[in-house]
Amino acid sequence: MELDNLKYAWRTLAAPPASERSPEEIHALLQKRSGGIVTRMRRNLTGELILIAATYTPAILFYFLDFEGKLSGIAWLFILLLTILAVYFFRKNQLLKAMQCTGCSLYSNLLQQINTLKKYIRFYVWSGTLMIPVMFILSWLIIRQKFPAAPGADLFYQLSGTPWWQHPLTWAVLLIPVTVGIYFINLWYVHRLYGRHIRKLQDLLQEMEEE
Amino acid sequence: MKLVQEHRLLLYKVCRLYCFTEADRQDLFQEIVIQLWRSYPTFRGESKFSTWLYRIALNTAISDLRKQNRRPSTTSTDEIPPSLPDMTWPGEEEQQLQQLYAAINRLSDVEKALVMLYLEDKPYEEMEEIMGINQNNLRVKMNRIREKLRKMTKEATYGIR
């Protein structure tokens, strides 16, 4: 089989009936949801954002309005957390938007996808890990402010002047292993999600570069 | 929409190359149309329209994870059927094309794109613009692919390995 001999047949190959589409059918295709990986990732991100906003908003309102506003500090901490999450979602969305350049050459598009996906993975792992200390610190602030200690409750209190569950050392001891553990869990999870895809893209790029 | 109508055969050929079942072809066709629709405002006419169209179609077909699971593996040749299902091909030329499709199925995604552009009689200059691979490298790759296809056809016809 010689490729050159097949050029004519290839170019004159009639389209199968399935490819015949009226303008209405094409219009209907455009109304459907895209199944592309980046579009799906952006859709999931929007879903997560809506879910978080829907969960936090009632909590914020609750702490502002109930208890005669005495626990409004907690509401402010939730707002702070929500702001951090908004920045997180914004950055993720930015990276997803930059991930594809379908109008670029195949090589440039692959390179862009790999580089952006690597950035995305790094951001995913580090933000997911750093979220843990932030949560710990916020929880510590809430507990410290809102749950006063009973003086002389235990030996720890007598020695340090603070109950153990309010002492920064206790939190630091808990924080380190939890953060390290979360880092590795994030790393494992993100590679489970995107590892295969990134390897496939790298293989394609390598094949294109080979002489 | 008019452009999609005009180039639907080209799009369908891409779908045929990269998808194994009719359902997957329909999905990919839809995805390419959506990508064309989204990217059209960014088309500035710096390259030929057909170059841009090929880029969109091939980028969508190659870099989309969704279809990877549905495609037969390019490395496991045992799983590849000798011909594509749900197609009837009368005539000798069509039979050759059928053989060609069966052989192409055993190529990698990049090689498939190169074969398609070659069969479409695209000059190496345009192939470089679409693929982003320099012309010398493209020529080397095309020679390798031609040899590979020749070998595959021999294997299929005479059982020679």
Task: Give a structural overview.
The complex is a heterodimer of chains A (211) and B (161). Chain A has 211 residues and is mainly alpha-helical. Chain A is built from seven helices and no strands. Chain A has helices at residues 3-12, 23-31, 37-65, 72-97, 106-146, 155-160, 168-209. Chain A starts with a helix and ends with a helix. The model of chain A has no long low-confidence stretch (mean pLDDT 83). Chain B is an all-alpha fold and 161 residues long. In chain B, 68% of the residues lie in helices and 0% in strands. Chain B is built from nine helices and no strands. Chain B has helices spanning 2-6, 8-18, 22-39, 49-63, 65-68, 92-104, 109-119, 124-131, 135-158. The longest helix of chain B has 24 residues, at 135-158. The N and C termini of chain B lie far apart (47 Å). The relative contact order of chain B is 0.11. Classes of the chains: A mainly alpha (211), B mainly alpha (161). At the A-B interface, helix 1, helix 2, helix 5 and helix 7 of A face helix 1, helix 2, helix 3, helix 4 and helix 5 of B.
